[in-house]
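In the current project phase, work has continued on tokenised descriptions of protein folds. One protein thus recorded appears below exactly as we store it.

——
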Amino acid sequence: MTGHATVNRRTMLAALAAMPAACGGLSPSAAIRTALAAAANPRRVGVIGHTGRGNYGHGLDTLWLELPETKIVAVADADAAGLEAAKQRLRVEAGFADYRQMLQTARPEIVAVCPRHPDQHLEMTLAAIDAGARGIYIEKPFCRTPAEADEIRAACERSGAKLAVAHRNRYHPTLQAIDQLVAEGEIGRLLEIRGRGKGDRRGGSEDLWVLGSHVLNLIHYFAGTPRSCSAVVRRGGRAITQEDVRPGSEGLGPLAGDEVHARYETERGIVAYFDSIANDGTGGAGFGLQLIGSEGVIDVDCDRSPLAHLRRGNPFAVDSSATPWVPISSAGAGVPEPRRDLSALVNQHQGPARDLIEAIALDRPPRCDLEEGAMTVEMICAVFESHRQEGRSVSIPLAERSHPLLRL
């Protein structure tokens, strides 16, 4: 047996222990049988990156090396030096400068669209679908406008391809523990949700896109589908105008504003807020959201461990005896985290990847699917559309599908 085969077997055995939890509704025995069958006939993966424009995201390329049920068969990178480095990193011989050629030659079943720059996502995704890909795992921001999301949706509906967006917090098992705490009344009546971006130099519109997309996706999860948005976008303390609009960095499209304040009404009657101010002085501590209830608060800190904390008590009362923050694990508040696979599951994207594989096999939507990705884009563009209409409430989905800043 070769060393590579030994590594694969060890990786497979380690993965089997975590497989039941990662396989949705499958029973442990069914999950193990599924894993064994997949390892014997791994799904072919093609990786699209671009070292010269956004690199390869946050591990969306390398995660497939850790899954015995997948095999990377090719990588594409228009940057020659980046391509050679990627071939070594991904342990693959087939490298292409043109991702379209890679797709047509290698014909992967799953395509990882890895660049951070969303201006390339539409073309890359459509090309993958056209080449017969059955699954796509795509870096966020998913795309730049509702119109682009519409094109991708139509292509997926025609082909039956499954698309999952890399909002990795959405796959965190602690979310279900938070759901249970809220349902059991641990924070009383849920009054509102407040989300913030990172508030660093990118604060405002760029923060809304790059990091706020994670927060808005979680607002969608906890509050249900947003129905309307009212917002204001400022630069230097004044409302932005067309003269402030500039091409955004990292292919984000038109951007303007170093301050964003948005309010969403949702299908469940919960009002949610998102705010971002450049260089707000918080050191990024506000990145995430808070579920504010009449008898407590749950604080969700995106991309941190533990993901969430609970503080019981009336959040609006001045009370020196207020209880301390209690960490929330996947098993509940104040319970030590029982899952040893949590970092791989969330931080290394293995949970989303396995969920996508199961979605393909069972012909169901991935957990964070195209519709969730498209709604996040709607929520972002609704901020600019409301500002364009002088802060009036605008309905979601938006009637106009192009970028609102182009019509400011």
